[in-house]
Specification:
four-stranded antiparallel beta sheet, mainly alpha, 6 strands
Length: 515
């Protein structure tokens, strides 16, 4: 084989997570009572736009999860194929021009020359200190001073047009799919989307996809000949580093959540349901854990793991495997230190649910505790679990950036937003200031966290029964007021037409007194 598949520990957990998600989607689609709340999530315009952007990030992260070791040209003494010690991913193959086009040092976004001066040998044998041409960025230009801006504009417009053309094709496929399912023609489906009469806000999704396609098309056309976001100290493309950092952010956010869920579910429901000494013991555990500074606990665990890795190098075949095991232990320690808040929420909700009439009736009929918890308590607290899970995702992404910034996060050989920010810390203090690496990390991380928060808000509004009840009551009140105003207006109009003065309902009509 021209390559050898490699499955790291985090890759295996990601594949397991994808399988669980697919099984869950299949199960929910076959149960109408579970599908109804998620349909309400699909009605949110902002939530669907945020989910569209999140799916793009997830696709990039999944491509970066498919790892392999490329085969070398030579063979060993037994005639077997030899594979490289470098572990690549499918995303690395897609971004090969960005990965291989390495400059000497810093270069600004879309630049054709280095950002710092260096000594250059002139054709006449003399030397001059000036800004040297980049080896790859703008190398196709004969005269950068006159062709630079024109070439950038032409390539950006061409890429944007190609992206818009691809978006039009996707739009047409969506209309054809809707026409086939609803037995309407193409024009009716097109009008339904842009008149906003569809159940799912396809207009918001398509507008978001239009921006994404145009942006990807323009960047793809420019990235072949330029460094769109510049280069770092060692000449690596900053756009490539930003895209590679997405996988680490997603793994930190998802795997850490999966690790903390069993602790929070088991201990939170147990404390609220059984109360008594069980509740006291569990409260003592998470109160004690909260009293320990989480940064110190994480730093101690990561440093202990680092010492073990350095003293047992024979366990790991590649540098990627060594960095991956450190990432896995970072997710574990983050999960252990972050389950307490969800546990407290589940305990309070379980204390309320165990006093409900149907729980008391189940106790009266002799139903076992395990059946009550699994059939009545757990389904009624799942909305809290889903809301807290989605909302904690953004916090965990930011936590990785902070921990990597202070040096106790991911391995320095691994690309992440935290390592990019840590490297940019020194670059901001130099003269001239290198600002684009920090800006790129901030923009990607801000977009990811913002979309996660918007989607979490949509999930909360759809799954939280208190918010739904409040919205339902307000809607009923508004409908009642509108009907009352309409009835009053109709009465006044009829009275005006008949020249009869309307009489209020509070007027008391007395019969005339007979003389």
């Amino acid at each position: 084989m021209p390559f050898k598949p490699v499955i790291l520990w985090t890759d295996a957990l990601v594949f397991l997570l994808v399988f669980i998600v697919l099984v869950t989607i299949w199960y929910v689609r076959n149960n109408e009572h579970l599908l109804a709340p998620w349909r309400r999530v699909g009605h949110s315009t902002s939530g669907m736009s945020a989910l569209t952007v999140l799916l793009v990030f997830i696709a990039i992260g999944f491509l970066d999860t498919l790892h392999f070791r490329p085969a070398l040209e030579h063979t060993n003494s037994q005639g077997e194929r030899v594979y490289s010690v470098e572990v690549l991913s499918v995303l690395d193959i897609v971004l090969t021009p960005l990965r291989t086009n390495v400059e000497k040092t810093y270069s600004a976004p879309l630049a054709t020359h280095l950002y710092t001066k260096e000594t250059v040998d002139l054709p006449d044998g003399s030397q001059k200190r000036t800004f040297a041409r980049l080896e790859f960025g703008g190398a196709h230009l004969q005269d950068p001073d006159t062709e630079h801006l024109q070439d950038i504009g032409w390539r950006a417009i061409t890429g944007a047009c190609l992206g818009l053309l691809a978006w039009c094709g996707l739009h047409a496929l969506l209309c054809l799919s809707m026409a086939r399912r609803s037995k309407n023609n193409f024009v009716q489906c097109f009008q339904a989307i842009w008149r906003r009469t569809t159940e799912i806000p396809w207009h918001a999704i398509l507008i978001t996809l239009a921006f994404i396609f145009i942006l990807i098309g323009a960047i793809a056309m420019l990235a072949v000949h330029y460094h769109v976001l510049g280069t770092d100290k060692v000449g690596q493309d900053v756009l490539y580093l930003s895209l590679k950092s997405i996988r680490i952010a997603l793994i930190i956010g998802t795997l850490t959540t999966l690790i903390m869920l069993p602790f929070a579910l088991l201990l939170g429901i147990t404390a609220g349901y059984f109360r008594g000494w069980v509740d006291d013991v569990i409260q003592y555990i998470y109160t004690t854990l909260n009293s320990i500074p989480s940064v110190l606990l994480i730093a101690a665990t990561v440093l202990m793991m680092q010492v073990y890795i350095e003293t047992h190098p024979e366990i790991f075949e590649t540098i990627a495997a060594r960095a991956d095991i450190r990432l896995l232990f970072l997710c574990i320690i983050l999960g252990i230190t972050s389950w307490t808040s969800l546990c407290r929420l589940l305990r309070g909700e379980t204390l309320k649910l165990r006093e409900m009439e149907y729980i008391q009736a189940a106790h009266a009929f002799g139903v076992s505790h395990w059946r009550i918890i699994s059939r009545h308590i757990l389904p009624n607290v799942m909305y809290i679990v889903l809301i807290a899970t989605v909302m904690d995702f953004s916090g965990l992404v930011l936590a990785e950036a902070v921990l990597s910034y202070v040096g106790v996060g991911v391995d320095p050989s691994m690309i992440s937003f935290g390592t990019m920010i840590n490297a940019a810390r020194l670059e901001m203090a130099r003269e001239p200031m290198v600002w684009w690496a920090l800006l790129a990390a901030f923009a990607f991380m801000f977009t990811l966290v913002l979309c996660a928060n918007l989607f979490a808000d949509a999930v909360q509004k759809a799954l939280d029964p208190r918010i739904r009840t409040y919205q339902y009551n307000n809607r009923q009140l508004n409908q009642g007021l509108s009907q009352s105003h309409a009835a009053t207006a109709t009465t006044q109009q009829a009275a005006a037409q008949s020249s009869i003065t309307p009489v209020s309902a509070d007027t008391v009509h007395r019969p005339p007194r007979q003389s």
